[in-house]
Design a protein that fits this description.
The chain has 135 residues and is mostly beta strands. The chain has strands at residues 2-17, 23-34, 40-55, 60-72, 82-89, 95-99, 107-115, 121-134. The strands form two sheets. A four-stranded antiparallel β-sheet has the order 4-1-8-7, with no helix packed on it. Strands 3-2-5-6 form a four-stranded antiparallel β-sheet, with no helix packed on it. The radius of gyration is 16 Å and the shape is elongated. The mean pLDDT is 90.
Length: 135
C-alpha cells in the first residue's frame, strides 16, 4: 500500500557554540524521495539562500516549507521507498539522513545535525513527517 505524507522543514536551530555568539547560515536544504535502489525519484527545495541568516544560540529560524510525497513498501518500482532529508549549510559538510518510513503515529520529528569541522558549533535542521492518507 502506498501512503501520502507531508514533509515539513520546521526550521533551523542553533544547537551550541562554545564562544556564545550568533551564527550566520546560508545554504540549501531538501527533502527527496528515493526508489529502493537509492535512485532519486523527486527532490523538493525546502530552504535556499545565498544571503546569510543570523541565528542566536538556542534560537530557531522558522521556515515552514512543506512537500507532499508518496511512498510505498510493497510497490517500490512505482512509488518511492525512502525519504532523504538534508542538504548543505555554510557551517560545514553536506549531511543527510535516510528514512525508511514506518507509521508510528500521525506526526514524527527528525533532525539533521550540521556540526562545524572542530564540532565547536552545530546547527540542526528540524523536519516533521505527517501521515495524510493511503493511496
Amino acid at each position: 500500500m502506498a501512503v501520502m505524507l507531508e514533509v515539513t522543514l520546521i526550521g533551523i536551530s542553533y544547537g551550541h557554540n562554545l564562544d556564545g555568539g550568533p551564527l550566520e547560515i546560508s545554504g540549501h536544504l531538501y527533502a527527496k524521495t528515493l526508489y529502493q535502489n537509492q535512485m532519486e525519484k523527486e527532490s523538493f527545495n525546502m530552504f535556499s539562500t545565498n544571503t546569510p541568516v543570523t541565528i542566536g544560540v538556542g534560537e530557531m529560524h522558522r521556515i515552514g516549507s512543506t512537500a507532499r510525497v508518496a511512498i510505498s513498501r510493497d510497490q517500490p518500482t512505482i512509488f518511492a521507498r525512502y525519504i532523504r532529508l538534508g542538504g548543505y549549510l555554510s557551517i560545514g559538510s553536506p549531511r543527510h539522513i535516510d528514512i525508511d518510513y514506518v507509521y508510528y503515529g500521525d506526526l514524527q520529528h527528525f533532525r539533521v545535525i550540521f556540526p562545524n569541522q572542530d564540532v565547536s558549533k552545530s546547527v540542526v535542521a528540524q523536519y516533521s513527517i505527517r501521515w495524510l492518507h493511503p493511496i
